[in-house]
Amino acid sequence: MPTQQHRPQLAVALDLPEKQLALALARQLRGTVPWCKVGMELFTYAGPGLLEELSAMGFSVFLDLKFYDIPNTVAQAVKAAAAAGVNMLTLHCQGGERMCRAAAEAAAGVSGQRPLLFGVTVLTSFAPGEMPGIEASPADFALALARQAGPWGLDGVVCSGHEATAIKASCPGLRCLCPGIRPAGSAAGDQRRVMTPALAIAAGADYLVVGRPITAAPDPLAMARQITEEMASAHT
Ligand code: C5P
Q1: Mean pLDDT across 142-148
Q2: Greater confidence, 120 or 4?
Q3: How far apart are CA 216 and CA 209, in angstroms?
Q4: Cβ–Cβ < 8 Å for 205, 167
Q5: Residue 67: closest CA among 34, 35, 26, 106
Q6: Residue 5 above 70 pLDDT?
Q7: Of the residues 119, 136, 150, 197, which has the fewest C-beta atoms closer than 10 A?
């Protein structure tokens, strides 16, 4: 079994269309889920002030805007995220070496706590053959990008659970953060490379990201607890 660097942690994706809805859900999950993920939908509705509010509630804050731009622009955005107290953020590995190194240098230069940088490899919504212009399988392409991520200064990569074992074996020290998590019986929706919490932990995931299975559950707290228990029993 691949080794996780610490006890795997759960992030809830607050993919909601309104700040007060997100805060209400966060209040329910406080004490059960350590990380709140703010992605492009909620960030665009609520703005950066929400990040500080979630921090003040005691959450670790994960800003998932998947930066992909010229190196200078990404570096400045990383500084802005760090100033807002973000603990973790995403950028695309496909932005390449100069973009990723610029992001890592910007993160290293912040005066407060340095945010963790995670490089998106292949979106979990891609099925084999769906990536435009890329012949490689999602598994091969994700692994090829992950091999560069550490040398380029990133702390980890975003990948599906299906790629985590190979990435952990090939890239010691690199952390894997896995979306596309679906407890047994949950609808996959637009996701294609999905895995249960237990299998993703067994595959070596360090962080699981779960959105709709929690946000759309009749009882989000009960679902978060169920996922947390499944993660704990899979992490031996
Ligand atoms: O609702 P669901 O559990 O599918 O949400 C997954 C979350 O993870 C979404 O917020 C999505 O933007 C994000 N994500 C992803 N695949 C990636 C990177 C991020 O699904 N490769």
Answers
A1: 98
A2: 120
A3: 14
A4: no
A5: 106
A6: no
A7: 136
Ligand 1 contact via 119 beta carbon (within 6 Å):
no
Give dist(CA 217, CA 32) in Å, integer: 16
Nearest to 129 by CA among 186, 188, 193: 193
Q: How confident is the model at residue 122 (pLDDT cuts 50, 70, 90)?
A: very high
Overall average pLDDT of the 106-113 stretch: 93
Which residue from 12, 15, 43, 44 has its CB within 8 A of the most atoms of ligand 1, so it is best to mutate? 15
Ligand 1, atom 13, lies closest to the CA of 179
Ligand 1 centre distance from Cα of residue 180 (Å): 6
Closest protein CA for atom 20 of ligand 1: 179
What is the spatial distance between Cα 197 and Cα 11, in angstroms, rounded to a whole number? 12
Identity (one letter) of the amino acid at 93?
Answer: C
Task: Point out the residues that are catalytic.
Answer: 66
Report yes or no: 164 and 200 within 8 Å, Cβ to Cβ. Answer: yes
Rounded CA gap, 192 and 179, in Å?
A: 11
pTM score above 0.85: yes
Which value, in Å, is the radius of gyration of the alpha carbons in the chain?
A: 17
Tens-digit pLDDT profile for residues 172-214: 999 999 999 999 999 999 999 999 999 999 999 999 999 999 9
CB 60 within 8 A of CB 35: yes
- Determine the Cα–Cα distance for residues 71 and 65; give it in Å rounded to an integer: 15
Is residue 1 predicted with pLDDT exceeding 70? no
Q: What is the C-alpha separation between 63 and 89, in angstroms, rounded? A: 5
